[in-house]
Design a protein that fits this description.
A hairpin with a 5-residue loop joins strand 1 and strand 2. By secondary structure, the protein is mostly helical. The chain has a two-stranded antiparallel sheet. Helix 1 crosses helix 2 and helix 7 crosses helix 8. It contains nine helices and two strands.
Length: 234
């Protein structure tokens, strides 16, 4: 796992869920973080519409962040590392948020509804990030696709660990818990792609997407309740 670079200073929220940090005394490190954030935001802005990450040039990203191409290399070794930073930025808060959403206990109808809503609301509030993930997950460069799959596997693994704590799933083997977690992740990922294709003002369509994802998740959990790994091998 690549190390994640986090901000240490105070911050203020701005658009698309991003933050701009307020400059502390002796703000050289702050300025470096600000420029790094500007490069990430510039790449996201360029990716709006149908452009792929592989179509971006270092020069245009640097221009969007209002720095020289040479200054780009003070923050990233190249476009590949910037792509990794975009992926990490997209998934970082998601892992913690979904763990909190599942912290209430056994997945009931209410818990499923809350988890689906929290996830899809997060996607809707961070459209630039997740549009990037959706586009690059299958059609991006091999390096970017592999990095996204790694993050998804991490997400599935974390969910499987959480599910293992539920007594009702005590008959699941570790392998089958991974399978169940993968099914649940697939449901919300498919729903998130529908959310991204739906105008934010179309509340009726978004409500239908949320409701459909919730029903799919309930069906998955209904089947899970009758599953016994000891009788399903082979």
């Amino acid at each position: 796992m690549r190390s994640r670079k986090r901000s240490d200073g105070p911050s203020q929220p701005v658009g698309d869920g991003e933050t701009v940090e307020t400059e502390p005394d002796g703000g050289r490190d702050w300025r470096k973080r600000r420029t790094r954030r500007a490069l990430i935001n510039a790449a996201l802005a360029l990716l709006e519409g149908e452009r792929s990450f592989s179509s971006l040039s270092l020069r245009e990203v640097a221009r969007g962040a209002r720095i020289t191409p040479a200054a780009f290399y003070r923050h990233f070794s190249g476009m590949e590392e910037l792509g990794h930073a975009l992926i990490e930025d997209s998934f970082e808060s998601l892992h913690e948020m979904m763990r909190k959403a599942r912290a209430g206990g056994l997945p009931s109808t209410r818990m499923i509804r809350a988890s689906v809503k929290v996830f899809l609301d997060h996607v809707g509030a961070h459209r630039a990030h997740f549009s990037f993930i959706a586009k690059e997950r299958f059609s991006g460069s091999t390096v970017i696709r592999v990095a996204i799959r790694k993050e998804v596997r991490l997400w599935v693994g974390e969910l499987a660990v959480d599910l293992s704590r539920f007594p009702a799933l005590g008959k699941f083997s570790a392998e089958d818990l991974q399978m169940l977690a993968g099914l649940m992740v697939n449901v919300v990922v498919a729903a998130s792609e529908l959310v991204l294709d739906t105008p934010p003002k179309d509340k009726d369509a978004l409500t239908r997407i949320y409701h459909h994802a919730e029903k799919q998740m309930r069906l998955v959990m209904l089947g899970a309740g009758a599953w016994d790994s000891s009788r399903s091998s082979g």
